[in-house]
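REQUEST FORM: STRUCTURE PREDICTION
Request ID: SP-0412
Submitted by: Lab K.M.
Chain count: 1
Length (residues): 152
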Amino acid sequence: MMSSDGRQCVKFTQFRTATESAISNSNAAVFWNAGNVTKTYGSTVSTLFVEANLNGCNRQSGNCGTYVDVGGARGYDFTYQYNNWYPSGTITVVGLMEVTTLGAGNHAITAGWAHNNSDTGRPFAYFCGGDGRDDGRRYQQTAVIHVWEVLL
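STATUS: Completed
RESULT:
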């Protein structure tokens, strides 16, 4: 696959979950250990593009430092979309990041939040809220992270 600027995608990895979990109301926590992505080339040869679509319910705070971490490189650039009403409403957190510093090998991917100060708050109370949670019309939610390794 070629990008519009002529760079080649050498690997695509997808992480997906529909497992519901309640998350704490602290100033920092990981709510998804997605797994490991294997990067084929070093940082001078390729880069990673990461797209995350994280769903939850019982929306809480859209200003809590939601991140995706890939091998220690964190991206905080996320957009929040709220649906429905509080407290049972759903929230979708969507972000895109480029990771330029990682070498070849396995790199853990996690999603969570970390406040810039000591405040508490979380993006939602339930990650991947389950069927009918707080509203019988709700289907099971799914979260997904896509990772593309692209040659420089």
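NOTES: The chain has one domain: 9-151.
Reviewed by: T.R.
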